[in-house]
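USER: Please consider what follows.
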Amino acid sequence: MSKETFEARIAEIEALRSAPAALEPLRKALRDRNNFICSKAAAVAGDLLLRETIPDLLNAFERFLKDPVKTDPKCWAKNAIVKGLKDLGHEDPAVYLRGIAHVQMEPVWGGQTDSAVALRGACALALVATSLPRDAILIYLADALADPEMRVRIDAARAIAQLPGLDSILMLRVKAQAGDKEPAVIGQCFLSLCGIDARASIPFVARFLTGPNEDLRFEAATALGECPDLLAVETLIARWRVEKNAEMKRAIVLSLGVSRVPEAKEFLDQLPK
């Protein structure tokens, strides 16, 4: 396929967003061997909420799992298909369970890289809305919370927040205290905890404001700044008043700057310019 033909094909698929009869052309595009063309068709199908394309999306996903490095490099098709299925409210967990376990090592300069990271994260988030029993979903998310790739671990922590309950809180608190080589993962655990139960989680997150790990001190401040609860703002202000470290004081001020709680702005307005 020439570059001109390829670009024309993509333009045709995009034009289907406003076409009166998009279903059959999209089904045809979803059968295309080119993973990028299929990814564009999956995106349009999801955006147009064409639930009739769900069988076509599922068939395409299975097709691109066969010899995936060759048929779907960079996981373009599978990523778009999963997003499309999620947008269409597809509740059968089977496809997401395939995706959350998929690892796709592809050659890069000097070695290999896993191109299925975004796919596993997207499937972790999609599992939350499926017909799978809640306990089973949490087991898969617990595994994803230990994925080798940071992005998947972050998405797992985000997904757990969508299943509020004591068991979810326990998982996130254990992970936060066990630590992670990437502070951003623990930062997401803080955010998820505050999203599930802010009042109970703020004192827990506040412990890390004075912990030995500088990165986690900053992550805790950020999470409290994003928490829309007055107690989080009061906690940050109290810490700022006694904090000796200039960088940490600045981090607290920046966190208060993004807070949606009016008292945060009132405090910042009182600071010397």
Remarks:
- The CA atoms of residues 33 and 71 lie 7 Å apart.
- The chain is about 70% helix and 5% strand.
- The radius of gyration is 22 Å.
